[in-house]
Amino acid sequence: MISNKAGRERLIFALDMVEDMAAAEEWIDALKDHVGMFKVGKELFTRLGPSLVSRIKDSGGEVFLDLKYHDIPNTVAKASEAAANLGVAMFNIHALGGIRMMEEAARSVREFSEKMELPAPSVIAVTVLTSLDDADIREIGFDCSTAELVPKLAGFARDAGLSGVVASAQDVSSIREACGEEFLIVTPGIRMDEGITGDDQKRILTPKRAISMGADYIVVGRPIRMAEDPVAMANRISGDIAEGLEEKEQH
C-alpha cells in the first residue's frame, strides 16, 4: 500500500493569494509538513521577491518558481541561472519561446549548477495554460486543438533537454506517448469533487484521476486555501494522490 507520505511528496501548494510576508509565513508554517513543495508565482514573487524563497527554504520546504520565463535565449539563460542560485527545486519557462531558448536555459542551469556545486533544479516548460481551451487557442491564431498542440510543444521541450512540462492532466497520455515515462509532468487545474466557485480553470481533474493518468506532481491552490481546515484538506489530497499511484501501478 502506498503511503500518504508518497502522496505528499507529489503535492505542490500554490502559495499565491497572500498580501504580505506575515500571511505567507502563516501558510508556510502550517503546511510545510503536509505538502512537498510551495509554488511561488509571478504576483507573489513580484511582491515579496527572493526573500520569500529564502523563507521557504529556511523552513525546510522546497520551491517551484512559477515565473514562466519567455524572452530572448540569453535573457532566459541568465534568469535560469538566477533561479538555480536561489536554490529552487523546480522552475518553468514557456515552450512557445522556442527550442533555442529552451536549450539555452537547460544548458545554463546545468553548467551553473556544476560550477557552483549546487543541486540542479528541474527545468520544465509551460505548454498550453489550463485556462485556455480549443476556442481560445484558435482565437489567437493556432489552427489546431489543445490536444494536438500540447504534445508537440512537449516534444520540443524534451528535445531541448528540459526535465518536463506543465500541462493539463487531460494531456498526460499524449505527452507520455510523445516523450516517454521519465519525462516529468506537473499538472495544475486540480479540483476536488465539490468544485470551486469563480474558477478560471477550464481543463481540470481530481488529484486521484490526474495521478492515475500519469501526472508526476499536482499543483493545488484554491481547494486548500478555501477549506475550513487547510491542513486536513492537504492531507486528504495526499491520500487521494496515494490512491492514484496505487491505481496507476495496477494498470
Characterise this structure.
This protein has one domain: TIM Barrel (Alpha-Beta Barrel), CATH 3.20.20.70. Helix content is 49%, strand content 15%. The chain has helices at 4-8, 21-31, 42-48, 50-58, 73-86, 99-116, 134-139, 146-159, 172-179, 207-212, 222-225, 230-250, and strands at residues 11-14, 37-41, 63-69, 90-94, 122-126, 164-166, 184-187, 217-220. Strands 1-2-3-4-5-6-7-8 form an eight-stranded parallel beta barrel, surrounded by six helices. It is globular and about 45 Å long. The chain starts with a helix and ends with a helix. The model is unreliable at 194-203 (pLDDT under 50).
Helix count equals: 12
Report the radius of gyration as a whole number of Å: 17 Å
CATH uppermost class = Alpha Beta
Distance between the termini: 15 Å
Q: State the helical fraction.
A: 40-55%
SSE series: HEHEHHEHEHEHHEHEHEHH
Main β-sheet: number of strands, strand sense, barrel status? 8 strands, parallel, barrel
CATH architecture: Alpha-Beta Barrel
Task: Determine the mean pLDDT.
Answer: 92
- Strand percentage lies at 5-15%
What are the segments in which pLDDT stays under 50 over at least 5 consecutive residues? 194-203
Which term fits the overall shape? globular
